[in-house]
Every structure is written in C-alpha cells, then in structure tokens.
C-alpha cells in the first residue's frame, strides 16, 4: 500500500524520557543526527529554575 503524499509530509515527534539531568540539547541532537529527516530537538526544562525535567522531544520532518 502506498503512502499518500500528505501523510509522508506529516512531521513526527518522538518522546525521549529518562534523560540524565546533564544531557544538553546539543548532545540529544548528536544522538539522532544520523537521521536525515531530523528537524529539531528540545529538552524540557523547569520554567523557574531552568533545570532539566529529564525528558525531551526529537522532531522529524516525516515519520520515515
């Protein structure tokens, strides 16, 4: 079954949990940099302290 162009162009987001508190956005980006559709990464942080909440998201241009 072929994937329609609208589905193939849909961005995808991957939850990454149980991160060490010292992991940086750059390190997370490096860990997923082999994927050609990598768009961005974000580690979620406490808005008051700026400390890592030990999870983040890796965003891709497509689910493939």
Automatic annotation (TrEMBL):
<dbReference type="Pfam" id="PF00076">
    <property type="entry name" value="RRM_1"/>
</dbReference>
<dbReference type="InterPro" id="IPR050825">
    <property type="entry name" value="RBM42_RBP45_47-like"/>
</dbReference>
<protein>
    <submittedName>
        <fullName>Polyadenylate-binding protein 7-like</fullName>
    </submittedName>
</protein>
<keyword id="KW-0507">mRNA processing</keyword>
<dbReference type="InterPro" id="IPR000504">
    <property type="entry name" value="RRM_dom"/>
</dbReference>
<feature type="domain" description="RRM">
    <location>
        <begin position="12"/>
        <end position="64"/>
    </location>
</feature>
<dbReference type="GO" id="GO:0006397">
    <property type="term" value="P:mRNA processing"/>
</dbReference>
<dbReference type="InterPro" id="IPR012677">
    <property type="entry name" value="Nucleotide-bd_a/b_plait_sf"/>
</dbReference>
<dbReference type="GO" id="GO:0003729">
    <property type="term" value="F:mRNA binding"/>
</dbReference>
<keyword id="KW-0694">RNA-binding</keyword>
<dbReference type="InterPro" id="IPR035979">
    <property type="entry name" value="RBD_domain_sf"/>
</dbReference>
